[in-house]
Design goal:
Mean pLDDT: 89
Shape: elongated
Strand order of the largest sheet: 1-21-20-17-18
Radius of gyration: 40 Å
CATH architecture of one domain: 3-Layer(aba) Sandwich
Strand content: 25-35%
Distance between the termini: 60 Å
CATH class of one domain: Alpha Beta
Structural class: alpha+beta
Helix content: 10-25%
CATH topology of one domain: Pathogenesis-related Protein p14a
Number of helices: 10
Length: 585
C-alpha cells in the first residue's frame, strides 16, 4: 500500500560534542604561531663576524632559536617525525667558521659566488679560501649551505632548503636532511649572506616516522609554502620502478614528471616529481590525491594520500547537520545536505537507524521525528524533522486520446507513463490513476506494420514537393514524408518508399518508427518547416491536478496521401483549433 507523507515541520536540536581541534584549524594556527613567528631580519640577525681578522663573531641567539623553531615546524607539518631537534654548541661554532669562510671568499661579492661542500682532497677547494679553517671545512662538508643576496629579508634559509629550486637540487637533498627520520641533533649559523646547517651525524636509532615522509604532506599544506617539487620518502625503500599519479578533486589526472629516484645517503630514500597544473591561487582549499605505486623494500607496495592546499584565511569548519525529504513508491527518501561532515547517523524515530549518507525508509502510518547526526573533525550536530504518514493515497487521473487529425481513434497504441505501460482501447483512449506530486512523462509508441497505408502513390506528392510544383502545405504530411528521419524531404525518401512497396524492406531506416505522435496542443513555430524547431513526442509534468486532456495527433509514416485508415489523412493549419482539409493535386 502506498502512503502519503507530510513534512509537518522542523525541530532543530544542536548538541555540541567536544572533539580535538580541527586539522585545518590546527594547521592554520601552527602556520601563524610557529612558522610566521620564526621570521627574522638582517638587522635582527646582528652578525658580528670580521673578515679582516677572520673572526667568526656571533649571531643573535634569538635568530638561531628561530631557525630551530622553523626546522621543527616543518617536521611537525609533515607529521610523524620527531619535533624536538636540538642544536649542539660545537656544531654551531664550526658552522659559524664556515659562514665566515664563505663571506670572506666572496668579499667583494663576485659575479659568480664561490661556496662548496669542501669534499675534495684535503678539503679542496675550501683549503684555498680566505679565512679557511679545519672547523669551517668540516662543517661545510657535513651541512646544508644557502646563499642570499642582498639579505635574508625576502627568503629565509630554512625555507630555501625546503623549496629546493634549481637544477642542482633535483634530489631535494637539503629538504631530506631537514625531514630525516633519524635526525636528532644539528648545528646552525647564519652570516649576512650565508647559512650553514650541520645535518650529517647526530642521529638517533631507529627511524621515527608515520608510514611515509611526504612533502607537501598528507593533510593541510599552507599555500604560501608550496614548492614546485614534491617528494615522498621511506627509509631504505627502493623507488627504482615506482610511479607517481595525481588527481584533482574532480578526478582529473594531473601530469607529473619524475625527476629523481635518489637512493644516496641524503636523509631517507625518496622519489621526487614536478606536477603540472597545481592551483596555487584559489581562495578555497584545493585537494589533490597522490598515489605512489610499485615501491620496493617497504611495508607496502602502493601508497595513497591527499594533500589539501590551504589559503591562509579563516574558514568555517563547524559541522552543521541538515537534510531534505522526498518520497517515491511508498518510501521516504532522505538526502543529506550537511556541511563539514564525514559520517552520518540517522534515527528514524521507530528504533531503526542507518549510517548511510543518503538513505530511504518505508514507514507505517504514524508521526515520526527523524533525526540526523552529522559528525566531522571538529564536532557533531543534530537536526530533526517531523513527518506524518497516512494511509490516504492521493491518486489523480491521467487520461488522453490518440487520434488522427480527422478524429479517427487509433487503438493498440502503447502508452508509457514513467515505468508503466498500457494500450489505447478501441476509442484510442488511455487512462489511469497515479500518485500526486510526482513528475510524469507520457509518451506513445507504435511500431508495427510499417507498410500500412504505404503505396507508390505516396511518392507523387513527395516528388511534386521536391520539384516545387505543389509544395506540401501540412506539417503533418511533411513529417509523414520524411521516412528516413533526416529532417528534410528528399529523393531518398522516395527511394525508401519504393523499396517498402516492393517488399525489399519491412521497416523504415535509421530507427524511424511506423507511427509518430505529436501533442495535440503543439503549434509549429514554422509550419512550412516542421523540422526546424524539433518535434515533441511526449508530455512531462508534475501531477498536482487531474490531467484528462493529454491528447496526441497520430502520423502514419510514409502514408503521405492518408490512405492508412481508409480515408484521406488530413493536415492541419498552424495555429487553428479545427482541422482544415488538404486537397491533393
Amino acid at each position: 500500500m502506498k502512503y502519503h507523507y507530510l513534512l509537518l515541520g522542523f525541530l532543530f536540536l544542536c548538541p555540541k560534542h567536544s572533539f580535538a581541534q580541527c586539522p585545518r584549524q590546527q594547521a592554520l594556527d601552527n602556520y601563524r604561531n610557529k612558522y610566521l613567528t620564526a621570521n627574522f631580519t638582517n638587522a635582527e640577525l646582528n652578525w658580528t663576524g670580521n673578515i679582516r681578522t677572520c673572526s667568526p663573531g656571533t649571531m643573535s641567539e634569538t635568530v638561531r632559536q628561530k631557525h630551530l623553531q622553523r626546522i621543527n615546524y616543518y617536521r611537525e607539518l609533515v607529521g610523524g617525525l620527531t619535533t624536538n631537534i636540538t642544536l649542539d654548541e660545537t656544531k654551531n661554532r664550526q658552522s659559524a667558521a664556515t659562514v665566515l669562510m664563505f663571506e670572506a671568499q666572496n668579499t667583494p661579492l663576485p659575479q659568480l659566488v664561490e661556496f662548496s661542500h669542501c669534499t675534495g682532497i684535503g678539503g679542496s677547494p675550501c683549503d684555498a679560501y680566505t679565512c679557511t679553517s679545519a672547523d669551517a671545512i668540516e662543517a661545510a662538508s657535513k651541512g646544508n649551505i644557502a646563499f642570499s643576496f642582498p639579505d635574508w629579508n625576502q627568503f629565509q634559509p630554512i625555507d630555501l632548503y625546503m623549496l629546493e629550486e634549481g637544477n642542482i637540487n633535483r634530489d631535494v637533498a637539503h629538504r631530506r636532511w631537514i625531514l630525516y627520520s633519524k635526525a636528532q641533533e644539528m648545528g646552525i649559523a647564519t652570516s649576512s649572506h650565508f647559512n650553514t646547517m650541520w645535518v650529517v651525524d647526530g642521529f638517533s636509532n631507529p627511524s621515527v616516522y608515520d608510514n611515509f615522509i611526504a612533502y607537501p604532506p598528507n593533510g593541510y599544506m599552507p599555500q604560501p609554502l608550496m614548492p614546485a617539487r614534491w617528494s615522498f620518502g621511506i627509509p631504505d625503500a627502493d623507488f627504482s620502478v615506482a610511479s607517481v599519479t595525481m588527481q584533482d578533486a574532480e578526478g582529473f589526472a594531473i601530469p607529473v614528471s619524475i625527476i629523481s629516484r635518489d637512493q644516496n645517503f641524503y636523509g631517507d630514500n625518496s622519489i621526487v616529481w614536478e606536477p603540472n597544473g597545481i592551483d596555487l591561487t584559489n581562495a578555497d582549499d584545493v585537494t589533490y590525491t597522490v598515489s605512489i605505486l610499485n615501491v620496493r623494500s617497504a611495508a607496502q607496495r602502493d601508497y595513497t594520500y591527499k594533500t589539501t592546499i590551504m589559503p591562509i584565511v579563516e574558514k568555517d569548519t563547524e559541522t552543521v547537520a541538515d537534510f531534505t525529504v522526498g518520497m517515491e513508491d511508498g518510501e521516504v527518501f532522505f538526502t543529506d545536505s550537511s556541511t563539514n561532515a564525514d559520517s552520518w547517523m540517522w534515527d528514524f524515530g521507530n528504533g531503526s537507524i542507518s549510517t548511510d549518507r543518503h538513505t530511504d525508509f518505508p514507514f507505517e502510518p504514524g508521526t515520526y521525528t527523524v533525526c540526523l547526526t552529522a559528525s566531522g573533525s571538529c564536532g557533531s550536530n543534530t537536526t530533526c524533522k517531523n513527518i506524518q504518514v497516512t494511509e490516504e493515497a492521493m491518486l489523480l487521473d491521467i487520461e488522453g486520446t490518440i487520434s488522427t487529425i480527422k478524429n479517427q481513434p487509433l487503438p493498440n497504441v502503447t502508452i508509457q507513463i514513467n515505468s508503466t505501460t498500457q494500450q489505447t482501447d478501441q476509442f484510442g483512449t488511455f487512462r489511469g490513476m497515479f500518485l500526486s506530486q510526482e513528475t510524469y512523462t507520457v509518451q506513445p509508441f507504435k511500431n508495427d506494420d510499417a507498410s500500412l497505408g504505404v503505396s507508390i502513390a505516396d511518392a507523387i506528392p513527395i516528388q511534386r514537393h521536391i520539384l516545387g510544383i505543389t509544395p506540401i502545405s501540412s506539417p503533418y504530411q511533411m513529417i509523414a514524408a520524411d521516412v528516413n528521419g533526416s529532417g528534410t524531404i528528399t529523393t531518398f525518401d522516395i527511394v525508401f518508399l519504393r523499396r517498402m512497396v516492393l517488399g525489399v524492406i519491412n521497416e523504415f531506416p535509421n530507427g524511424v518508427p511506423s507511427w509518430r505522435f505529436i501533442p495535440t496542443d503543439f503549434s509549429f513555430p514554422n509550419p512550412t518547416n516542421p523540422f526546424e524547431s524539433g518535434i515533441p513526442d511526449q508530455y512531462t509534468f508534475v501531477l498536482t491536478d487531474p490531467q484528462t486532456s493529454l491528447n496526441f495527433i497520430a502520423i502514419k509514416m510514409g502514408d503521405v496521401n492518408g490512405s492508412a485508415l481508409g480515408a484521406n489523412f488530413l493536415g492541419r493549419s498552424h495555429g487553428l483549433g479545427l482541422p482544415n482539409p488538404i486537397n491533393f493535386k
